[in-house]
Amino acid sequence: MSITTSTTEQLADEFDSPARLLTAEGVRVRHEILDEHVADLDLQQLADLYTDMVLVRRFDTEAFSLTRQGELALWPPLLGQEAAQVGSARALEDRDWSFGSYREHALPILRGVDIDRWLKVWKTTSNTAWDPHEHNIGLNQIIIGAQTLHAVGYAMGAQFKQDDSCSIAYFGDGATTEGDVSEAMVFASTYNAPVVFFCQNNGYAISEPTSVQAKHVLARRASGFDIPAYRVDGNDILAVLAATRLAMHRARTGHGPSFIEAVTYRMGPHTTTDDPSRYRENDEVESWKERDPLLRVERFLESEGFNVEQLRADAKTNADALAKQLRAGAIAIQPDPAEQMFDNVYSSPHARIERQRAEYKAFAASYEKAAS
Ligand SMILES: Cc1ncc(C[n+]2csc(CCOP(=O)(O)OP(=O)(O)O)c2C)c(N)n1
């Protein structure tokens, strides 16, 4: 793939209609800036991205069902956001770090995080269960927007050590309203940090539509920090891949941070405890079904003569195997000792945590005493 370093211009003209390479009808359209960043991609590679999306979708829907069946405690579904997550994840190098919130389930699958470990968090048997350094994936972040600070901190450290790795921060439309995100962008901009701010604008922050949070498109916020912004169709995996490759390349070659707004839609509830029918119309959800990220790739591949039927069948076989593994893993998870929650709060012993640990032990012992 040839990438020039001069493509720092914003997709400013396109802010009102997100940049796209593949329409919902599956038609490949040209784009002056983005095209060159996916010029190397052949049909088989696009089919592989499709398979990734099928796997991720199946993982998500299976985990959702497991939650409904009482095998997991909570699940924030990504349904509808497969292209935004897979497209951006596939633009990263293994050495790059990702800092997500709680909805980014694609990257761990693509990077081979042990599924059982990932699920422990969602069965609430462990605060966290995977080693971030093993796969360069930060811990889930529930504090909205805080992970952007972590990503910038990491990027500044990498820059200081000159180790050529970059970071990407995933966050939602709602997070852009948080002070943490503004602070992260100030530091990223002033230190020229190699970081990509990847905003998945999925239309809602729980029940708050994006329109309540911003009077203009979110990508415009970045210019206030002097950070170039790209606004792409987040359901178009080609556009997402291209924009993220461009942004990562900028970061890696010393051009500093970028902001990507991937315009997508959360097809399901905020989490399994939410009922979206209370705050949005079914017509709106239906209108997004036609913009499905997988459907448009199938349509395009079909128009190119690719054997989509076979692709679908193979992807399903892989997805079935993943779902089976996921189900068995979720059911088998046993709780970690509760006391473990005190272990990783600080890197060294801390008086307040030790006091809490002692309180917890006394509390647990009182039950044992009552039972005997
Ligand atoms: C600092 C903080 N404030 C509020 C919350 C409660 N909260 C949890 S999810 C959420 C909405 C976040 O929306 P968005 O950033 O758009 O991400 P999405 O859930 O749509 O992926 C809020 C307000 C929180 N977790 N942290």
TrEMBL record:
Residues 52-311 form the Dehydrogenase E1 component domain. It is an enzyme of class 1 (oxidoreductase). GO terms for molecular function: magnesium ion binding; pyruvate dehydrogenase (acetyl-transferring) activity. Its EC number is 1.2.4.1. Keywords: Oxidoreductase, Pyruvate, Thiamine pyrophosphate. Its cofactor is thiamine diphosphate. CDD domains: TPP_E1_PDC_ADC_BCADC. One of its GO terms (biological process) is branched-chain amino acid catabolic process. NCBIfam families: PDH_E1_alph_x. This is Pyruvate dehydrogenase E1 component alpha subunit. It comes from Agrococcus casei LMG 22410.
